[in-house]
Design brief:
Elements (H helix, E strand, L loop, with lengths): L1 H21 L1 H41 L7 H24 L1 H25 L2 H24 L9 H21 L1 H10 L7 H20 L4 H11 L4 H46 L4 H16 L2 H11 L1 H21 L5 H29 L2 H32 L2 H11 L3 H12 L1
């Protein structure tokens, strides 16, 4: 009886998949439904990731008692997100986006609540472990951008990525501006004020996971793989063109990864030390929240326009734009008077916009270069490299500032972003 029920379920799933394979209208409807579910999960996920960005360094500074290791939380979070990106990518490849993304968000929620307990107990080892687990939520929030592209047409891919990213803005901007509110709430229940935003993060990540678990059906990635399998008709032609196609795919993956890695290093390094820099010059926690909130808005809000530009103008031009914008951000952050809120806001806004250009153009290149049978795990592997880049940027940023200055960190980061331009030029010369 049990064996019969299992077979019946498997046959039912095959029939459901076949309906989507045979109907372009059903594919379009599922694409739109997937985008709506991803948007909702990203709003929640955005609120979760803001806690680590805004007060992670300040909480560690308070518990450790020195500035030299203020970049450690960002490093641990991004190391955790690297491991999570790998696992979420593998889970998504094997079981679909629903299983991979829901697991990542739920793990992030557990990590956020662990940080709260560590702050209450003043327990550094628990804090470090929890920061690693919390990174799973941040990695998943980033990987969710791929879910909307599974059923998108090639000329819709950057816009599909942008839809997922722009929805993150609502939660990500609200999070830093709720720092004071959550701090007061935390203090009222006997929790350190700086741990308050992580209460919000735990609830937000958990809800995002439950939304995906409940509603992301049928799974868009599984449907996309079934469609791709059904379209494989001319095996001889595929075999003859495989060498050239593989070379072009490899170049696309290399360039897309390089663009995302460099933009991540620069953005994480400067962003991580901005709250510490502001605190040293007498800015309040509310002012820190405002600057970081605007920075996060600039990271995600331009996405709808960026997606259109990447699809219309091309991946290459927007990669160049990323490098130039990050350079301007680094120069402005280095020269901004420490007491000038307007200059700090402008610098961090440019930093967010430059990151946005790089992430969407790089992501589009990765999607273009990967076939369905390896797409999810390749995306996960690339995001591992992006997360490790962020970890190194976060860890080194505190040491650079402790041994030189915030200005040196900012100008170095800005100049480093220009390295992506020769890589893109190399790709174009190879293609020619």
């Amino acid at each position: 009886m049990l064996e019969y029920n299992v077979k019946e379920k498997v046959n039912g799933r095959k029939e459901t998949l076949q309906k989507y394979v045979d109907s372009t209208e059903k594919q379009r409807q599922l694409y739109q439904k997937t985008l709506m579910i991803v948007v909702l999960s990203q709003i929640l996920g955005g609120a979760g990731l803001a806690a680590g960005i805004t007060v992670g360094a300040l909480l560690a500074q308070d518990m450790i008692g020195t500035d030299s290791y203020a970049g450690i939380p960002a490093a641990l979070i991004t190391l955790g997100s690297a491991a999570a990106a790998f696992l979420v990518g593998r889970l998504s490849q094997r079981f679909g986006r629903r299983a991979g993304l829901a697991s990542g968000f739920l793990a992030g929620g557990i990590g956020a609540f662990g940080i709260v307990f560590a702050a209450v107990a003043d327990h550094l080892p628990l804090l470090y472990v929890s920061l690693l687990v919390y990174g799973a939520g941040m990695a998943t929030n980033l990987q969710a951008r791929y879910a909307g592209t599974d059923l998108a047409q090639p000329n819709q891919r950057a816009r599909a990525v942008s839809m997922a990213m722009v929805s993150t803005t609502f939660g990500a901007v609200a999070g830093p501006n709720l720092v004071d509110v959550m701090g007061r709430f935390a203090a009222s229940i006997g929790v350190p004020a700086l741990a308050g935003p992580f209460i919000l993060a735990g609830a937000a990540f958990t809800l995002a996971g439950l939304v995906l678990l409940a509603w992301l059906r049928p799974d868009p990635f599984i449907v996309a793989k079934a469609i791709a399998e059904a379209q494989k008709t001319d095996q001889v032609k595929v075999s003859e063109s495989s060498s050239t196609g593989t070379a072009m795919s490899n170049r696309g993956i290399i360039v897309g990864t390089t663009v995302m890695v460099l933009t991540q290093i620069v953005m994480i390094a400067i962003m991580t030390m901005t709250p510490v820099h502001m605190k040293h010059h007498g800015h309040s926690l509310r002012e820190v929240g405002l600057v970081i909130g605007i920075h996060i808005a600039a990271m995600y809000l331009p996405s709808l326009v960026t997606g259109v530009l990447v699809d219309k103008l091309g991946r290459t031009i927007m990669s160049y734009a990323s490098g130039i914008t990050l350079l301007l951000a680094g120069i402005l952050a280095a020269w901004a008077p420490p007491d000038s809120m307007a200059a700090l806001i402008a610098a961090l806004a440019l930093l967010g916009i430059g990151w946005n250009f790089g992430l969407i153009s790089g992501t589009a290149q990765i999607i273009d270069a990967t076939p369905e049978h390896i797409r999810a795990k390749t995306q996960g592997t690339v995001d591992v490299l992006v997360a490790l880049a962020g970890a190194s940027g976060g860890a080194l940023s505190g040491m650079v500032v402790a041994n030189s200055s915030f200005a040196v960190l900012s100008i170095t980061g800005g100049l480093s972003s220009l390295l992506l331009i020769p890589v893109v030029l190399w790709s174009r010369s190879k293609r020619s």
